[in-house]
Amino acid sequence: MVASTFPGPFDLPAPEGAEGWESLYNWYHLFGEDRRKADEGKFWFQDRLHHPYVLHPYDEIQCECWWQALGAMNTRVFAVPPAFGLEQRVLNGRLYVSPVAAPAEEIAARAQEFGERAGYYYEHWDEIYAEWKDKVAERIKLVRDLSFAPLPEREPLSTVTGHVGHSAGYRWERDFSLMITTMYETYQWHFEMLNIGYAAYLTFFQFCQNAFPGIGDQSVSRMVGGLHVELYRPDDELKRLAKEAERLGVGDAILAAAGLDAAQAALATTEAGRAWAADWEATRDPWFHINADPGHPGGDHRFGTWDDHPDIPFGAVRTYVERLRAGEVIDRPTERVLAERERITGEYRSLLNAGDHEAFDELLGLARKVFVYIEEHVLYIEHWMWAAFWGKSKELARSLTTMGILDDPEDLFFLRRTEVAELIFDTSASWGTGAPGRGHAYWTPIIAERRRIFTALEAWEPPPALGAPPEAVSEPLTVMLWGITTDSVAGWLADSEEEDSGVLHGVAGSPGVVEGPVRVVRTVTELAEVQDGDVLVCPATSPAWAPVFSRIAATVSDVGGIMSHTAIVCREYGLPAVVGTGRAVSTLRTGQRVRVDGDTGLVTVLD
Fold it and tell me: Which residues form the PEP-utilising enzyme mobile domain (predicted)?
């Protein structure tokens, strides 16, 4: 008999050795007795899309940013009819979220308000999006231009002659606060257009389901895809660099080198090599500012970017050079995807009564328009903005270590952001007076204990969800991005009861059926192990993973819905995908043969 509920949030004890883990996180993120009755009655799913790993205390800001912004835009600004926002809780170091449904009696009035407010954005979408890009780019530059260099022994004379009137210690305090508030502001803009974008796509989706009973999710999504968006530009730049290497005749030097450093040394000896190396350097900013997270980008400070790990993009260039020499086409099959899109669209449109053509065309046109933003915002926010934020946070951590306040730069990330602000004040005050500060002595034992607890938390295998599943999920982001639906949750429960059934249930993300060997990949650094024809099994993917899609046969992910990056990119590359399986990474093993059915959302073990 299949279970009807997941463990309750108050039924799971702390992992062995992790007692007291609650001290790592802010009080408002925790389950508590004061709201036990309310929280026990809700359904919570683990947010493995953004945070597949245990949260560092400092990284909690990433959750906070979208928690408040998503809710405010849904509930207070645009009045999305069926849904408010998403609640968050941290349990044993993992983030769980719960959709908040709008009261049934308010939906009609909210729908009227939503039509007016979202309608204004839909009508002016292109100009608002152009303005959006400019203001986000300005904030990215603002953060990148901040300085957290070690506090000087003496201020430069220019501080006096320039009548600056304040000190480097003050600027640390000011700029850290500015960096935090800028991150929050940017996340308001992140959701300024995102949820109403998903709502437009979902409206088209529902129109098609009503007009064409039995239509598959794949058919609807394929009518929208195949667009040229900036999100694919980083991978396109790697392909361009490979083609340029062959054009300049330096492909042999690139293939012969053991790594980027060796290649640069060899390339420096010829004019053509120097030209290619200069092209590489020019491409790094901004196209290598791509976060290398193992899931949704920007959610964890640890993984850095392509620019931090340049052998990742360089390895992709080498692979593309090899494939060019083998006579392969390395470009995405965009024209084929577009042709298929128009064929499917035409066939379904022809089934409609003439009176429905106008509504179909309008809804489809809007879905295609918002789709560009839905994909491209990831590049601006999750990659460029978070890369700037994590980079400056690490600069601050290195300076505190150089000054003897921290023992290791990683120590900073075991402090909550408010605690970092306190440490900065203590450091600035001590620097200003010349008297000893208390920061190192105070925080060192706390950080050591948090590190120990953090390690114990990492050993815990969290359930994919908590509590009783809802009758229906209506929040657009939950459905389209995470893939949390009644069917997917039922599949998780079935999988938990049938450990040896050999079948995983997920969301049909991209059409097609493929059999092949499993390659479990948890981080971008493991992508070099992927072989041609492998079935990629992962928590989720991000644009940092793009080069691997030209080698694999299919993708299976733990999280994601029909509009997740994994599903979208597989459709763009013409690869089958099953997303939102809940536990593929922990269940499947590298080397197993599986059948991936991207039409039904099933993954079957064949061994």
Answer: 531-601
